[in-house]
Amino acid sequence: MARDGQSPIFAKSYDFILWLLNHTERFPKSERFRLARRMEDSVFAFYETLLRATRTRHPQTFLLEADIELDRLRLYVRLSHARGLFRDNQYRFAAEQLTEIGKLLGGWLKSVSQEKRPG
Questions:
Q1: C-alpha span between 10 and 3 (Å, rounded)
Q2: Would you say residue 7 lies in a domain?
Q3: What are phi and psi of 96, to 5 degrees?
Q4: Cα(83)–Cα(100) distance, rounded to whole angstroms?
Q5: What is the pTM of this model?
Q6: What is the rounded CA–CA span in Å between residue 63 and residue 87?
Q7: What CATH number has the domain bearing residue 107?
């Protein structure tokens, strides 16, 4: 479980990273060097981009990058399911988690966009 006091998107992302790593390490060797590696790189890049967004005055650029990375991750999860690497219940869980994370990211993006508006 993620540490107390973290914002929801960081806590949710951290928990998803742990879940994902527990599953990708069980992929067949051929897929660990292909699909698992891409998924892991993508989920780490997503989290790191969120961190960058917290350390700048203009987080919108980083949040948009994180959104693209999240789309990549969704693709890799779908491909993993299509190739039989995730069972239906695992795929459903991953898809639900990514949807929740996406909503949190969307809310953050919206709040940043509203901050920029005069008024």
A1: 9
A2: no
A3: -65, -45
A4: 24
A5: 0.90
A6: 31
A7: 1.20.1440.60
5 falls within a domain? no
Domain count of the fold of the chain? 1
Q: Is residue 103 part of a domain?
A: yes
Query: DSSP secondary-structure letter at 36?
Result: I
Provide the 8-state DSSP code for 83. T
Only one residue has tokens 């006091």, namely: 5
Q: How far is CA 3 from the centre of its chain?
A: 17
Read off the tokens for 96. 């639900």
pLDDT tens, the chain, 119 aa long? 444 457 999 999 999 999 999 999 999 999 999 999 999 999 999 999 999 999 999 999 999 999 999 999 999 999 999 999 999 999 999 999 999 999 999 999 999 988 766 65
